[in-house]
Every structure is written in C-alpha cells, then in structure tokens.
Amino acid sequence: MIRRMDSGFVVRALGALAHESRLAIFRALVVSGPPGMAAGRISSKLRIAPSSLSFHLKDLAHAGLVQSRQEGRFIFYSANFDAMNGLLGFLTENCCEGSACAPRASRSTRHGGKS
Amino acid sequence: MIRRMDSGFVVRALGALAHESRLAIFRALVVSGPPGMAAGRISSKLRIAPSSLSFHLKDLAHAGLVQSRQEGRFIFYSANFDAMNGLLGFLTENCCEGSACAPRASRSTRHGGKS
DNA sequence: ACTATATTTCAATAATTCTTGAAGTATGGA
DNA sequence: TCCATACTTCAAGAATTATTGAAATATAGT
After folding, report:
1. Global confidence as pTM
2. Of B44, B93, B37, B92, which is closest to residue B60 (Cα–Cα)?
3. CA distance B3 to A108
4. Sign of CA dihedral B74, B64, A3, A51
5. Contacts A–B by Cβ distance under 8 A
6. Dist CA B36 CA A31 (whole Å)
C-alpha cells in the first residue's frame, strides 16, 4: 500500500509527531517493533492518562503512522514503518536538496506544480 | 555549530514544518539554496499576506530551520541545511530503527517512486 | 526632511488542539 | 449473568496557534 506523498499527508504526519507525547509514543512503538505494544502498556510506561493516550493514538493512526490490531481485550499499536520511510524520503528529497543535506543526489530542477 | 538533538528541538522543528504555508516556505527556501529569498518575494510567490508570512518565518526561525540576513531594504531568508540534516538524522535513528526503514548509509541517494 | 519600499509588530479575533473525568463499549472469565 | 479489565468516546473548558488590517520600524533615494 504505497501511499502517495502529497503535502497533505506530510503535514498531517509531521503534525502528528510534533508533540512530546506523540513523539514519545511513536518512538516507543518503533522500539517495540512490528508486534507493537498494548495501549495500557504505553499508558503506564509513558504516564499518559488513558483518554489522552487514546486521543494521541487516534491522531497518529489518522496520520497513517501507526496501526492497531485487537488481541483479546488488548489493542496493540505498532509503528507503520513504510509510512515513516515515505515521510523521511519526502523530507530528504523535497527539503534537503539545496546543499549539504543530501550527499550529492538529485539536483532536480523540475518542480512542477504543487502537490 | 552543532545543535543538540533533544526532543524539544525536534518537536519544535516538526511543528514548524507541520503547516501547509510553512512547509511550502521551507521547500521554496531549500530550492533557492544558500542565497535564499527576500521576504517579499516569498510573499508574492506563495501568496501569503506579509504579516502572516512574518509570523510563519518567525516560527521557522525560532525552530532553527531558517535564518535571515539583511541586504539593503530586503531581508533574505534561507534554509538551515544543517538543522534539517540534524532533524532527519534524529528521525532516522530514533524513529526508524525497528524494521524496514532506511539502510542509513544509502538513504537519500535514490528513492524510487516519488509522487 | 520627505517619500516610497520592505518588513515586522500589534491587537483582536478566529480556529484548532489538548486535557481529563465520566460515561460508554467490548472482551473474557467465573 | 455479573464482574473486572481494557480501551474509547464524550463534553466542556483550557491552552495554543493562526489570520490580518493597521500601525510601527528601517532603509534608500531625492
């Protein structure tokens, strides 16, 4: 499911990560790998009130950065590595081509239309 | 001058980029390279009201993602590639280590299937 | 000094996001 | 069924962020 990298998705994903709690949640999910972590465990581990956590997880999920699966009474959340990879690719290509950022990669002179 | 990559900076930088106008501004500055662009030119090019633009540029500057220099009556803004590089490095290292994300070494040399 | 240009700051408002207790939904076990 | 656990949604206020006209600041040229 290769997600088209329009600026709408990028803005949403950046916004989702642009919050102390959500960045911490995402980092914890990255560390926990594909199996992910149950919501309750994230809540106790990061000391975030359940309802706040739910709010933030919903935001991350809506941005496409995390996904969930139910397992018994638990809901496991896990990082969407493809989405993060896509975001990083976009930032590298679109926000880093002018100078030292990219190691001498595409010097694309074509910037047709806004996405 | 190497900036410490604490989550405070990261959250601020992500937040600065997490807005349609600011992302567009930053992308334009990246394309314009080290010389950057005068505020008025950004304003007319992106159709952003001067006072709004000022507000957003201040946010980007405060996040360390852009810098300004005065040249006569004009104020030129330019992207801070080091900061962007640092942000990308943080994201790659801290938010992508669990699975398929970037192979670190060859990141950004080529990304198949952009928009 | 005066005028025009370039940009920022102010101020008031509008819009969005965050937080959390309480109530609601869902699952599993006795 | 009843109860406990796991998690989400609701609601309403608090906090933050965004927008923009008008006023202010700064530089350049005359």
Report:
1. 0.87
2. B37
3. 28
4. negative
5. 145
6. 38
Contact call for A94 and B33, based on CB within 8 A: no
Instruction: Give SS3 for B79.
Output: strand
| Cβ pair B85:A93 closer than 8 A | no
Instruction: Tally the residues of chain B.
Output: 115
List C-alpha distances in Å: A27 to A41, A49, B20, B67.
14, 18, 25, 29
pLDDT digits 0-9 by tens, B3-61 = 668 899 999 999 999 999 999 999 999 999 999 999 999 999 999 999 999 999 999 99
Backbone torsions φ then ψ of B34, nearest 5 degrees: -55, -35
pLDDT given at position B5: 81
One-letter amino acid at B39 equals A
Three-state helix/strand/coil letters over chain A: CCCCCCHHHHHHHHHHHCCHHHHHHHHHHHHHCCCCEEHHHHHHHHCCCHHHHHHHHHHHHHCCCEEEEEECCEEEEEECHHHHHHHHHHHHHHCCCCCCCCCCCCCCCCCCCCC
User: What are the residues facing A37 on neighbouring strands?
Assistant: A77
Report yes or no: A62 at the B interface, CB cutoff 8 Å. Answer: no
Sign of CA dihedral B27, B30, A87, A30: negative
The whole-number pLDDT of residue A5 equals 80
